[in-house]
User: Fold these one by one.
Assistant:
Number 1:
Amino acid sequence: MKRVSLFITLVLVFSLFAFGGILDTIKARGYLVMGTNATFPPFESFNTQNEVVGFDVDIGKAIAAKLGVTLRVVDFAFDGLIPALQADKFDIILAGMTITEERKKVVLFSDPYFDAGQVIVVRKGYKHFTDVAELANEKVAVQMGTTGDLMATEVAGIVLTRFPHFTEALMELALRRVNAVVIDSSTADAYVDFNPNLEVGSPVLSAESYGAAIKKGNEELLDFVNQVLKELKTSPYEAMLEAWF
Ligand code: GLN
């Protein structure tokens, strides 16, 4: 009897190591891997030292710090991020990724951490638009696989070119090969700040929210990320109220 229970104990201890949760795996590894597409300022872009910096990177760092590990950032084409997450190339996607029903079928999304929407960027002095449908018959560039791509794809008669990176789509606009780019509002503002020849040529055309994407099955990491997001969103004063009352 004793032998049997010793055996069972050993099996249990062993399986604890063999099937340790995702958080234990990350802690043992010593770093959290974040997948992103670094052509999306101010959420992620390369600085002059060739490091990826931005709002999402800071969120990634906060999650890593809470886990007691460092953060590694992997730069990927946007439309390759979800397949790479599924293939365990990273633990988490932080890429200004909009929470959509389609994406929810294949990944887990954290609670929303930023409200966003699409706008149309044009060369300064080109027409202004009030609705995405007005892009019919226009030459337009988007970043492949984005919600801007999905939105533009639905416009009948649009002449659409899809690029792996926003930098290429905006270059195409500057070179007059297209007349508009559909892109997230905050990122549009960031690019327009650096390009005096471009401007935002529409109001915000959609209501979207960004979430961190995590592989299905890693609910433990999802809960942890939601906890960190909650702490980040709560002001120190609110945290004090919550702690004492
Ligand atoms: N928010 C957009 C999307 O999720 C674009 C994100 C991005 O290009 N990084 O599709």
Number 2:
Amino acid sequence: MLAQALQVVHVGVDSEEVASSNPEPELLVDLPPQSVPGMLPELHLSARELPHVRERLARRTSHHEDTTGRRQDGDADDAGHVHCTRIARRRLTLRSVKYARRHPAIVGGPSADEVARRLLTWFDASHRDLPWRRTRDPYRILLAECLLQRTRVASGIPYYERFLARFPDVTSLAAASEDDVLRAWEGLGFYRRARNLHAAARVISERHGGRIPTDYDSLAALPGIGPYTAGAVASIAFGARVPAVDGNATRVLARLFCIEADVTRGDARRLVWALASDLVPASRPGAFNQALMELGATVCTPASPSCERCPLESLCLARAAGVEEALPRVSRRAKSPEVRVAFALVTSGARVLLAHRPASGLLGGLWSLPGGEVRARSGPSDLRALVAEQTGLRVGVGARAAPVAHTFSHKKWKGAVFRCTSRSSRPPSHSARFVRLDELRDLPLVSFHRRILSKLLPRAGTR
Ligand code: SF4
């Protein structure tokens, strides 16, 4: 954290003061008031903290090259001033500095070299053999990173293999229709990931000649590619020295450095990223990032970390304090609300009425039975209104045909599918149509609607 804080301020080291007889000489950190309004004018670090600050500044900045002869960030001048002027001033906040001050253990925490050495040795001997670890192909790594966000490895592997068989490279993915991409993703949830990956493939095809960019900034500029994915691809596929901090890595770092604040928020979140940036080594950064995540997935697990098997046990501040199971602290999430839903099953011969869901909403881009969220005691009126809005058809609502119970990350849907009738078989809306049952196999459908349709209409195409 201090390295992060100090990257963005001028750091003045008073050599005479350090050398004086004062048992606790100080390092003065001048905080430029114009860059951070309202900030304290200076921060005092003790002599015990000073070597760590210097070491971290040197580590953090040693890879910067300056061919113009200007002083580099982290260089010390003759008067003992360490200059750190180039990097992201906007990241510094008063609270983040205060946070570092309240947690002096971070300053004297585990040495980055030792953490990297132990983690890499452990990873080489213990990592799981996963399909995306057998390749340096950036497309495969990008696919795996998108696919595994919020998805368990065991569930993700079959999708990874099916997706690659269907779209073996960026060019084939860029040329595919959105329906085809969503069909390959169907059942995995969080469909925005698939649409973003598809959009990224098109940008790579159009602006980068079909080659995935090699640097972090260009990767992060692709549609839907956030800091984690950009860091993972840049480090694993291209060997860039950048962090990749997912939930597993966050948990390990929160425990290793005994961070007691809520690591999903604000300063503590930035602190975790800063620590990860400090730790990632110049040699094998991709393997290091994977090792950190792998440790979180297999050893430093949420409920009961297996510290006795952990290569970092003797370095871990939470373990030393006996609080490893209490960390990381996260704000308790509100219980997922239960929301009533109703959907219409409207058939016309061997065809069924489907609506194309808007890209921006829940289950965006998929096809579904018309309907959705209704008021708890609305009777058939809300369903009639939803069908009219989504398809342009007026329907009569009949008997209940099947129950619906589906859980999302933030809410639960509970309700039913109702048999409905319509006088017209031609919906006026462009986003709705009657679909032949044998065509269903090729359309990306809301997965629980596909299950219901395969029971209610046995001729409906299934996987
Ligand atoms: Fe996690 Fe325990 Fe290892 Fe600390 S010692 S990093 S708490 S598994």
